[in-house]
Design brief:
By secondary structure, this protein is an alpha/beta fold. The protein is about 25% helix and about 20% strand. It has two domains: about 25-55, no CATH class; about 70-140, Ribosomal Protein L15, Chain: K, domain 2, CATH 3.100.10.
C-alpha cells in the first residue's frame, strides 16, 4: 500500500488547498494579527475603538469624595454615637458632632422626629429644613483637616 505522502508527491498542495496547511494561513494569521493591514476594513467596521487611547484617569490627589450621612441615619444611630462619644443628650435634646466622626456633609434623605443639634461642615438645604422642622438646629463647624 502506498503511503499518503508518496501518494501526494508531485502535487503542489498535498490535498490541502492553497494555504490551509501552513499554520494559521487560511485565517489570515492568529488572533488579532493583521488588524492594521489586511484585516483593516474589519477593524474599521466592527472594532472602531480598538486602537488608541480613550479618556483619561484623574490623579487621585485631585479627586475628592465627600463622606456623607443622611438625617435618618443620624436619628437611627444616636445611641451608638453616644456610646462612641460623638453625641450627648441633655434633657430631651441630642447634640451630635459629625465633623469629629469624619462626615463632611449632611443630606436630607429620610424622616427625623427627634430634636437634634448637629455640627457638620456642610448640609443640604433639605436637611436644614427637616432638622429645623423637627425642633433641631444645624451648626456649621470646621471641616476635618486635609491629610
Amino acid at each position: 500500500m502506498v503511503s499518503r505522502t508518496s501518494k501526494f508527491r508531485g502535487s503542489r498542495t498535498h490535498g490541502r488547498g492553497k494555504k490551509a496547511g501552513r499554520g494559521a494561513g487560511l485565517r489570515g494569521g492568529r488572533g488579532n494579527a493583521g488588524l492594521h493591514k489586511h484585516k483593516w476594513i474589519y477593524t474599521v467596521k466592527y472594532m472602531p475603538d480598538h486602537f488608541g487611547h480613550h479618556g483619561f484617569k484623574r490623579p487621585q490627589s485631585v479627586v475628592v469624595s465627600k463622606v456623607t450621612m443622611n438625617l435618618s441615619e443620624v436619628e437611627e444611630s444616636l445611641p451608638a454615637f453616644e456610646r462612641d462619644g460623638f453625641a450627648t443628650r441633655k434633657g430631651g435634646k441630642w447634640s451630635v458632632d459629625l465633623t469629629k466622626m469624619g462626615v463632611d456633609k449632611l443630606l436630607g434623605s429620610g424622616r427625623i422626629k427627634t430634636p437634634v443639634s448637629v455640627t457638620v461642615s456642610e448640609a443640604s438645604a433639605n436637611a436644614e429644613v427637616k432638622l429645623k422642622a423637627a425642633g433641631g438646629e444645624l451648626i456649621k463647624g470646621k471641616s476635618k483637616p486635609e491629610a
